[in-house]
Amino acid sequence: MLKQVLTQLENELSISQTQILTIAALFQAHMEQGLSGRVSSLKMFPSYLPAPSGSETGTFLAFDFGGSNLRAAVVKLKGEGNYQEQYRLARPLSEPESGRDYRSSTVTAEELFDFLAGIIQEVLNNSPENLKLSSSTSELISLGFAFSFPYRQQKLEEGVLLNWNKEVKTSGVVGEDVGKLLSAALMRRGLGNVVRPAAIINDTVANFLTAAYQDPTVDIASIVGTGHNTCYLEPKAPGFPTPIIINTESGNFSAAPETTYDQILDQLSDNPGEQKFEKKLSGKYLGELFRQIVLDFSQQGLLGRLNNPPAPADWNQPYSISGKDLALICLNEDSHSRLVPKEMDFALKYIINLLIKRSSRLVAASLIGIVRHLDPHLNHHHSVAIDGSMYKGMPGYAQELTTALSEALESKASQVTVKLSAGGSLTGAAIAAALAKQIK
């Protein structure tokens, strides 16, 4: 009976070669609808940045605000794809010692951005090149701001927050331009004539900039981790005379096939109907899909009790099983024993492998959609830089992605190279600041 149900699950989760190509064609269609201003599940946001040449040089400030930790650094771009972080500082948004949690709705925008400005000031004060003292009002230090929350952008240094996520609820920021909020905080710190927030980007664009700075053949970059998104270099973006990086917001793609488990997860999520592609493939959601499938099988009597006495809280608590837990189960790490009774080991690993394979094939389909948009007959070579915990840390994931691309592209597979990004939102932010000076 269990074998039959596993076979049925495999049929539901499998993405065939034909389906990869169908999804790719739909992704391409949604891209082109979004680019032309028509209704689309892909937002196709312009980043207002070109690709770097690799020859950009100079010393810049970089700030990364993308989750529970804030990071800042002085980054020296040396040209020829070389760079060096000269001073780096990380601070958590929550400070148990002081009792202050900057994620809380009781914290104001001014308090949060004063905290950010304080981190920037500390980096400046400890910079090996003593940037603050060597600067003048005629030559402000350019700062690149990697801000990985949903925002609307109409110019490079602007980012109007649409909504918080990742457990951040700070009041007074939604609907405001985070670039202006940071500038105002820097003014209050006496740094208004020292630092200029020059560019706001998200982590996916930062990944592109870092990878393309080192390898000019990179024209696509993707994050496959806790979340998911992809950007690429668009040669003919409406309203732009030269090629610019487009942030597809691919996690919101809506035309991939769904299972009942996907539908339940979406309905019970905090954003039903949104990010439906991301919910099928990213680390945040794969653990939850796995938990739902295993609970369903257990309730059908196919796996017996998950534990004896009855199932532990881990299995009954939504989102209690992470992508990292799935990796540990695959790797036979001792720490997964709290989750997996030994007699269920084979079945649970089988389910995980099905989810990993589907995830990688969905990502492959989206990448093919982008490549086909850029180069319908695949006459040219394309390099894809990928970063993120799923791609880097999930056993077998990278190989499954490569296999899916080879299978779908057949004789043209050699035209698409996928590589692990050297990554780094801070470096990408610094490169954005350098590009901002060039196009000012």
Your description of this structure?
- The protein is α/β, with parallel strands linked by helices and 440 residues long.
- It contains 15 helices and 15 strands.
- Strands 1-13-12-11-14-15 form a six-stranded mixed β-sheet, with helices on both faces. A five-stranded mixed β-sheet has the order 4-3-2-7-10, sandwiched between helices. The protein has a two-stranded antiparallel sheet with strand order 5-6.
- A hairpin with a 7-residue loop joins strand 8 and strand 9.
- Helix 2 packs across helix 12.
- It is globular.
- 45% of the residues are buried.
Write the layout of secondary structure elements.
Layout lengths: L1 H12 L3 H19 L9 E2 L10 E9 L3 E11 L2 E11 L1 E2 L4 E2 L7 H18 L4 H4 L6 E7 L3 E2 L7 E2 L16 H11 L6 E7 L1 H12 L3 E7 L3 E7 L9 E4 L12 H9 L9 H4 L1 H17 L13 H4 L6 H8 L14 H30 L7 E6 L1 H5 L3 H13 L6 E5 L4 H15 L1
Parallel strand pairs: 2-7, 7-10, 11-14, 14-15
Antiparallel strand pairs: 1-13, 2-3, 3-4, 5-6, 8-9, 11-12, 12-13
Protein name: Hexokinase
Pathway: Carbohydrate metabolism; Carbohydrate degradation
Pfam families: Hexokinase_1, Hexokinase_2
